[in-house]
Amino acid sequence: MDGNNDPETSQQEQPDNKEQSPQTEDATFAPVAGSPVLKLDPVLNLPIRPIFPPILLQIFPSISSISPTGAIVGTSDLTLNVFGSNFGTNSTVLWNQVPLTTTVISGTQLSAVIPASDMAVAISATVTVSVVVTAGQAPRVSNGVSFNVIVDISAIISQLQAISAIPAALLTELQTYVTIQQGQVDQLTAQVSTDQTTTAGLNSQIAGLQTSVTQQQAQIATLTAQVNAAQAQTASPLDVAQSFKSVLDTIQQNAQAAGGVQTTVSNMNIAIKSLVNIQAATTTTAPQAMLIFPSPTALPDPAHLSTLNLSFSSVPHLNAPQTPVSAQPSPAPSPTPTPSPSSAPAPAPAPAPSPSPAPPAPSPLAENTDA
Questions:
Q1: Which sign does the torsion angle of CA 114, 115, 116, 117 carry?
Q2: What is the pLDDT of residue 330?
Q3: Are residues 87 and 158 in the same domain?
Q4: Which pTM value belongs to this model?
Q5: Of 246, 279, 308, 352, which residue is least crowded by CB atoms under 10 Å?
């Protein structure tokens, strides 16, 4: 038998053929059916992920409300206020896709003029806002809000009166009802207009208050910097007055110690410039004022300094007493030479005789001799 026809030989050669199948760099990889075909990296032998373009978010304008919401046929030029969000400087109010003369008030409010020609007949118009973001590209348009132009009720009543089949009482009731509704609409419109005026006034006040707060904060920062830069000393008004009183006391004492007639201060008025710091009362202490004396090299604005006036009056004029002659001690007068009992000096007392010693006690030998 021919070896080429051996089934075992053919089965062994099949895996060899699979191992020797060449791989090219243009091989593709598709792990899931229907997914994009990915090329393999020739070095890492891994699929190369495609690069997706960046996602750009498109922000469109949005209308939340309009004022007024409608008008009567034959109304003259009318100002329409549009409220919403994402309004830009290139925003335009559209009336049935026709641009109106628009004023940009803020990013949330627009103002447009509806010409009288657009309200000559009854119509339900759609109001939108168009914003041009990039020149040459299509503008971004907001959602639409309806603006209804209706026929005057008097014209409706006239047409109904022409129909003889409608009772006059029914026409009267209809006219009364419409009049009441129109009055309510007019009140609401007036209230909206008043609220808008009030809001504008409040916004103006807020802007003014913010400007004032900014100015006050700048002034406080300036004063704080001046206080921090100065080498200030702090004392109470009583301590300041006491220090000047000590000066007066020293002048008086020096004048009195000098002797003779001395001229001293009879009264003194002092004006002191300083910053005043008021400390509020607490549960344990009463309110008090402290004086802050800045350094002469870093004085704050004089307009911010307070004046403390101290007055010392009724200071006595000292006349130091002269030293009298009798104050010196004088010697005692000497006695006259003429002896007299009254003027003779008293004899000096004789010295007291010293006690004689006691005789010695007799000895026992002497007693025996006498016997």
A1: negative
A2: 54
A3: yes
A4: 0.36
A5: 352
